[in-house]
Predict the structure.
Amino acid sequence: MGPMTINCPLPTVLVALLSSFAPIGAHAAEELAISNRHLSAIFDQGAGVLTILSKDTDTTFIRDKLSSREPSSARVVEIEHAVFGAGEAIELTYANGRVDQIAAYEDVEFLFLRPTLANTSDRTINLKEVDLLDTALSLGKPVGSLKALGTAGLTAVDGQTGSYMFLALADPATNHGVVGAWLSSDRGSGIVFSGKQQDQATLRARIDYGRLRIAPGEQAEGETFVIGHFKDARRGLEEYADLVAQNYGIKLRPQPAGYCTWYSNPHGGACDQERIIEIAKTAAQELKPYGFDLVQIDDGWQDGKERNGPAKVFERVKPEGQYSDGMKPVADQITDLGLTAGIWWMPFAGDRRAPYFADKQPWFTKKADGTPYHTPWGGTALDLTNPRVRDFVGFLSNRMANEWGYKYFKMDGLWMGTSTKQAYINNGYREDDELGVPGVHDPNITPIEAYRLGLKQVRDSAGDDVFFLGCNVSQNMRSFGATYGLVDAMRVGPDNGAKWDRLVRGPWHSSNRYFLHRRVWYNDPDPLYIRASVPLHHARLICSWIAVSGHLSVCSEWLPELPEERVDMLRRTLPSHDAFARPVDIFENPLAKIWLLQDDRSGVLRNVIGLYNWSDKQSERIDYDLAKLGLDPTKQYVGFDYWSNEFLSPFTAKLAAELEPATCRVLALRELTDHPVLVSTSRHITQGIVDVVHEKWNRQERTLSGTSRLVGGDPYELRFALPASSTSWKLASFEVASDTVTVVSETQKGSFLRVGLSTEQSREIEWTAHFSPE
């Protein structure tokens, strides 16, 4: 007898309660409670009601009745998590053997919910999906005024079709809200739904397995879901990403910046073995000193016939193709130039009709009729439950990394490792993607588990010195959470392009998933475009967005023929900063118009504000309270506008700006104090974040000193704001502690001062500005 497939979910932990229920305390003797510094959870056994209270916000955001199938027993237990340490949990056991755990760990601002699934029958069962949570939320505002942010973007609460892995429900006026998200995706694919019942928001969490077999008398631990209430739901999303990083022990490799051949015009696609060296030499000379370090070859180098998508023989090059001399000589030359050689491939896809795969037909997953699982563009799915297939994937990975010398992998079509349909462009939940095809070598391994085994094989075979970029979740979002902890960067959206409607795709997807960047992986929005055919203001906007957000910076321009003005624009994005930026209005606008980047590692707090008009048709006026921006509304601020190259007069309370269609402004802001401050530098669009290492005011000596990183041959300007008071300030002298750096200009106009420096060698320099009363 075969396994018994269960299409309906097991009993849920919580269901939305539409009727009234007993007040807290009515069954005090039967209450079970757990608590930490942030949250309390109380289960009233008599009433079957679970109450969850946030101490940080003083909000009871869940108070709901358990399902009609009451637990057969309930208790509080002490627990120990391998990552999060000691905690306590309410355990609910059901007659069918399932155990649901609601846990609290002392220093974590979320509650953890996890099911342990059981099979008490005499036959193997096959679970396709499991519901964990279905609850009404008390958020203190009419449901119509709330917004939901998930992988489908910003919507009304009942406008989400379902979100993969995370969902935030928040009040745009205050940012107060609930974040519910799947911490793990080891064997199942976590989904979060929102909706409304009467005038309450609802939240539902479900695990899709497609195929989870549990033998008689056995148990299976489910994925972990976390939920919390936050004064600022943006911080809740960021805390969630930090938890993911802790849970998976994520340690990202250094963030690269460079070139991808794919969209280049001319010489796009895979380029060729002569011209790829030409562009590498140009990049090494013109851009490497600024932080450029990558040249990546895209689709078209590999052998095979292009049939239903790319050719898929990655063991070798096309005999008469652009790289007929082989891939190793090219990687060696790129490496000799001091750059990283990158390569594109599809690790989990094959071609059932290709001669190369004629003897490998058993290596493909199969549909119910026994034919290989095939999907548009992706080709034929390799069966990663088969150890021989994983060995084959490892063989390819080792060849490219260690025999050929490619230390950056752009891995496309990753979703094929889950053997699901191509769903491009996939953002909101799709339940028709055929997760769990029946024909696999080992049906006891779930599709998500097989996918993760495949990625682990790629990593282990390539080695620790390879940077892994996943591409791309929009092909099928099953690869979103399933990739947690297994890549350094992830293309979080679809292919973009130089035309405006495609150019904004990257910012839309990356903004809505911003909190994962630098925590779980580096967000890759796809290349930026600065070619001469792109209007100057468009190029400035996309460069500014990349620079302020700090997301992966890759261009796809033919550098040898790029106008100098555009090359210099690219220089001002390099390298990516290593601080954390945040979209301020993420719960207010479908594509955030305001970004805040803050960094205090130089000894002072630097604020960089990116303002973006994403409409190419209409002008935009931004009038925003400083308090909501994240700044002190009682303080005066002075600033510098990067692209207009102008100081901003002191202002308070509100930030106001006018933007023409498809334009931006990048403002460096400093609090106006009783002494001079460094507001901006010319080195980078972030105006000091990447180049100013240290800044200190000495009141007794009336000196402002600092340390800056300069690029040889690149004019460098420091922009200072001086106090506007009855006692005027004047630069008495400016000194640089290096005889190879020249002070080329000193210009003071009122309370604003500019100092220009020049050096022929890239170096870190110390400078001191001496001030005296005028």
Observations:
- The CA atoms of residues 547 and 573 lie 5 Å apart.
- Confidence is low (pLDDT under 50) at residues 7-27.
